[in-house]
């Protein structure tokens, strides 16, 4: 399942500064292409859906901010490349169980 691959990608990037550095300068098309080569096969839509759910979780549940432009999370992305922001400010804020629950739509754990 592709959502499993999104989760695996997030976990691998979270655990490897070298991976974040390698992928961080790439645009979305390049990220998707190289991720597939590296064994993480997912679409831009699947990635965006997972990112949206994780960002909403940080804003609403963790920071308890309004889901609008005043959110602390939105301000934290300025000055950072998108993948760096995503891993450091969003993915790291969740436990592995929370990540699985939010990323994998049917709730199945990634292997």
Content of β-strand: under 5%
- What gyration radius follows from the Cα positions, in whole Å? 13 Å
DSSP, total strands: 0
Write down the secondary-structure element order: HHHHHHH
Question: How would you describe this protein?
Answer:
- This protein is mainly alpha-helical.
- The protein has one domain (2-102).
- The chain contains 7 helices and no strands.
- Helix 1 (2-14) runs antiparallel to helix 7 and helix 2 (17-24) packs antiparallel against helix 6 (82-90).
- The longest helix is centred in the middle third of the chain and has 19 residues, at 44-62.
List the helices and strands and how they pair.
Layout (H helix, E strand, L loop, with lengths): L1 H13 L2 H8 L3 H10 L6 H19 L9 H5 L5 H9 L5 H8 L8
Helix pairs in contact: 1-7, 2-6
Brief write-up:
It contains seven helices and no strands.
List key phrases describing it.
111 residues; mainly alpha; globular
């Amino acid at each position: 399942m592709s959502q499993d691959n999104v989760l695996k990608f997030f976990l691998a990037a979270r655990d490897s500064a070298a991976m974040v550095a390698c992928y961080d300068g790439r645009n979305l098309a390049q990220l998707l292409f190289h991720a597939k080569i590296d064994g993480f096969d997912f679409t831009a839509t699947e990635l965006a859906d997972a990112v949206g759910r994780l960002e909403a979780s940080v804003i609403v549940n963790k920071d308890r901010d309004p889901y609008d432009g005043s959110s602390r999370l939105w301000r934290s992305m300025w000055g950072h490349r998108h993948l760096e922001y995503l891993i450091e400010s969003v993915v790291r804020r969740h436990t592995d169980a929370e990540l699985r629950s939010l990323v994998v739509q049917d709730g199945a754990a990634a292997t």
